[in-house]
Each structure stands twice: as structure tokens, then as C-alpha cells.
Amino acid sequence: MPKDYYEVLGVSREASAEEIKKAYRQLAHKYHPDKKGGDAEKFKEINEAYQTLANKEKRSRYDQFGSDFPGGENGGGFSGFQGFQDFGNSGGFEFNFGEGGLGDLFGDLFSGFKGKGFGGRRGNDIGVDMEILFKEMADGAEKEIEIYKGVLCDKCQGSGAEPGSGFKKCEKCGGTGKIQTERRTILGSFAQTSICDECGGKGEVPEKICSKCSGEGKIKEKIKLKITIPAGIEDGQTISLEGQGEPGEKGGPAGDLYITIHVKPDSQFRRKGDDIWYKAEIPFSMAVLGGRIEIITLSGKVKMKIPAGTQNGKIFKIKGEGIKKMRGYGRGDEMVKIAVKVPKRLNRQQKKAVKELEENGL
């Protein structure tokens, strides 16, 4: 059955490129095979969906034909080749596994590299949790987080070479930065080109490795980062910081940092969308006669009028005292639900007054 890539990423068919990218990052972080609780099959499915929807041309063809469109992830077409007949008549052909195209199509057959051109391996992503207060969620906040992660070695500046020493040609790849291997499959012989794991695609290695990082180009340290918490963020939502994960190998790009936000429950407020709800107790006499009470809001205390005859469960609205909206302008409202306190014990005079009310149909 054809896959619904929009459903896989959890976005609508009208989703923007940025929304698709954001959804992919969050899901890839959640299901990454290297992470505890990760799911390799789910991760592969998410990646497949993203490779199609992130490409304007592929997305257009997918919207028209579905996941079995010619040249698609599950289709049988081969863009740039003349079909199966050429495979059978040739002794094999050579191509580089890059981003998209046949590199994606034969992802299960070959361990190609990610990214275009040759370069070091991308660093791992990091996932952390952060707890914030209800008010910080409502108004937004600047927070500081401390994490223990890899950083570029300050002695060799990430080169892996001892300061003062130079570099020499990599013997494993002969200075080309790439290694070629040939594999035979049911479709013919394939010459796979991959980056050299010795030099990371640079074609050279240090003459003398750095004594501080042992040639890795990075060390582990505790670092502090300032995080901007957007107002209105949902409990469990993830913030991503590009390039703040682990440094890449052999000069490769750094991974990303994912911060999952947990909003601490508040004893007075609860959230519904951009509105907050507050329970206010009033005495029985105020419900009957009316009056004014003090209400707590996110910005402070305010006085609110209680009309005579207010019923238990009545809801009043204080406009603009809710949560700042993540998209657009303004704030939600504060909804105040009234709870009338009924006295459990009455003296003789109070009982007489209630009896008179009852006799008058009140």
C-alpha cells in the first residue's frame, strides 16, 4: 500500500518547507537508532518521507502520483539511465552516492555517506530535558542550560595535529580523500565511492597528533548555553539549536541540540489553548448580594466585580490576561470560574435569615 509521507511526518499537505523540516528533525531525534528507545525502521521511514517532501520536484511528482511515482522512493524508474536493458548489457557502471537520486534509492544495498561531496562525518545530536515554570511558559523566558559535551580542542583548534607540526598525505586513500570499492548485486556491478575513514575526506593526516585530544580534534567539557523559551510553548515541545550538538569527525559539521520542555504544573492556573483558567471561591452572601473580590492573574492581582445573584459555576472572562500567542499578536484570556462556598454550620440568627429567604422563594 502506498505510503502517505505527510502522515508519516505528521504535517498537512499544505505544510511549508520549514514546517516539514521542523517535523522531520523532531521525529528523527525521537526515533534515531543510536538513541535509547530509538526505532531503526521508523527512522528509515521518516527519512524516506523527508527526502521526498523536502525536494520541490519530488514533492510535486509525489502529490500527483503518490509514493509509487516514476523515479520516486518506491517507484521503478531510473532518472538519468535508460532502464533495465542497459543494466543487462553493460558490465556495470560507476556513480557517487550523494544526497537524493540513486544514493537514496539503493540506501539498503550500500552504506553510502550523507551530504554532498567529501567531508568528515556529522556529529551526533544531543537531547536534554528542561523544566520551566508556568509563568515562564506563558510569558517566555531566557534560560541557561549546562551540558557536558564534546567541543573543539583548544590546543589544536580541532585539526587533531600537535601545534607546530604539519600534515602528510594519507596513505590509505593516497591523498584523494576517497576510497572505491566494487560490489556485485542482482542489478550488476557497482563501484561505490565513499569518504576515507582515515583522513575524513581531507586527503591528509597530522604528522604528529595533538597530545591533548589524541588527534580527535575535540575534548569533553561542561558548557553553558543561553536558551530562549518562546511564550506559549507546549508541554513536551522540543526546541532545536542547530550546530550545538557534538562536533563532527575530521572537520565534519556539528550535530544539533534538542531541548524537550516540561512545564511545571501550577497550583492556581491551568491551561486551555492560549487561555488560562482560575478558580475563585466566594462566600454565599456575596453570591446573593454581590461584591468585589481579588483575583490573581499572571501579571498581578486585580479586583473583579461579582454581580448579585451570581450562580455557582459562573464563568467570567478577564481579557488579555492569558498566555502570549506563539503565532500572531496579543494574549489569550483568563477565565475565572466561580465556586460558591456554602456554610456547613449556621447559628440561630443565620438559620433564621436563610429561612426567611426560603419563605420568600429565594
**Principal-axis shape:** elongated
Overall pLDDT metric: 80
Coarse structural class: alpha+beta
Radius of gyration: 31 Å
Strand content: 25-35%
Lateral strand order in the biggest sheet: 11-12-16-15
SSE sequence, one letter per element: HHHHHEHEHEEEEEEEEEEHEEEEH
So how many helices? 9
End-to-end distance: 67 Å
Total number of beta strands: 16
Describe the fold and architecture:
It is a single chain. Helices cover 22% and strands 30% of the residues. It is an alpha+beta fold and 362 residues long. It has a 4-stranded mixed β-sheet with strand order 11-12-16-15. Helix 2 (17-31) runs antiparallel to helix 3. The longest helix is centred in the N-terminal third of the chain and has 15 residues, at 17-31.
Gist of the model:
The protein has nine helices and 16 strands.
Attribute tags:
alpha+beta, four-stranded mixed β-sheet, 16 strands, three-stranded mixed β-sheet, 362 residues
Question: How would the blueprint of this fold be written?
Answer:
Layout: H1 5-9, H2 17-31, H3 40-53, H4 56-65, H5 84-89, E1 93-96, H6 101-105, E2 126-132, H7 134-139, E3 141-152, E4 167-169, E5 178-185, E6 188-195, E7 204-206, E8 218-229, E9 238-241, E10 257-263, E11 269-272, E12 275-283, H8 284-289, E13 291-297, E14 300-306, E15 315-318, E16 334-341, H9 348-359
Parallel strand pairs: 1-6, 2-10, 12-16
Antiparallel strand pairs: 3-8, 4-7, 5-6, 9-10, 11-12, 13-14, 15-16
